[in-house]
């Protein structure tokens, strides 16, 4: 892979729990216009349980990022 | 992408992705939260940079999120005899234009509420349409950026060769490419959701 920028320049940044929560909140606000807390309230209340992910603007983006803060 | 332990398996998984991203001439880092340490059978996610993604000068932005999990693997099936590897659980790649309007979305979200078992793409002129297609690698998405004239750290021919090399470990160790195992092939292009079976 000669001539390329060294892969080491693309770092892996391990987030703290607080930073992961803040990033998740930013993703929720950007993609769905709601806070991370509000998203989790809706998620835990099964408000999206019967919803096709792609039918709600930004839901696919937020759901994919959920493991930043949740194990399931 | 096996490793001797969960942490090493994740490093082996992320290294080719870091190397692939190095093709694009823009600030990039992979962010991840390992929640106290990598463990087997637990879902994790990595993101490219942050909620703003990677700025591609003259093109727009690339956003990438991937879910993954560490699983056991048979040491006999890899040349190093390692016991752990990473499996991908889903992905979400988006390329937007300079006004940050989405141009292409590459989706595979087979888990949880509203799951869709099949990898698909949403593309203009109708981003609501699901175009079912085989599993897409990060390298494929980077090649799409390349075709959109994204700024590169090397010439185009070298970038194509570089991406072929970084993609190789995934091609070697992946367990499926076209359709998830046990799932019927979806029926072409539809604006309707396909019939979904949750595992």
Could you explain the architecture of this structure?
The complex is a heterodimer of chains A (72) and B (199). Chain A has 72 residues and is mainly alpha-helical. Chain A contains three helices and one strand. By secondary structure, chain B is of the alpha+beta class. In chain B, 22% of the residues lie in helices and 32% in strands. Chain B has three helices and nine strands. Chain B has helices at residues 6-21, 138-147, 156-173; strands at residues 29-32, 43-48, 54-56, 60-72, 84-96, 102-109, 116-123, 126-132, 189-190. In chain B, strands 1, 2, 3, 4, 5, 6, 7, 8 and 9 form a nine-stranded antiparallel beta sheet that branches. In chain B, helix 2 (138-147) packs antiparallel against helix 3 (156-173). Chain B starts with 5 loop residues before the first helix and ends in a 9-residue tail after the last strand. Chains A and B meet through strand 1, helix 1 and helix 3 of A and helix 1, strand 1, strand 2, strand 4 and strand 5 of B.
Strand-helix topology:
The complex is a heterodimer of chains A (72) and B (199).
Chain A: E1 11-14, H1 17-32, H2 36-44, H3 59-65
Chain B: H1 6-21, E1 29-32, E2 43-48, E3 54-56, E4 60-72, E5 84-96, E6 102-109, E7 116-123, E8 126-132, H2 138-147, H3 156-173, E9 189-190
Antiparallel strand pairs in B: 1-2, 2-4, 3-4, 4-5, 5-6, 6-7, 7-8, 8-9
Helix pairs in contact in B: 1-3, 2-3
Number of strands of chain A: 1
List the total number of helices of chain A. 3
Class per helix and strand makeup of chain B: alpha+beta
| Main structural class of chain A | mainly alpha
Radius of gyration of chain B: 17 Å
Helix content of chain B: 10-25%
Computed over alpha carbons, the radius of gyration of chain A is 16 Å
Level of helix content of chain A?
A: 40-55%
The gross shape of chain A turns out to be globular
Oligomer: heterodimer
Q: Report strand % of chain A.
A: 5-15%
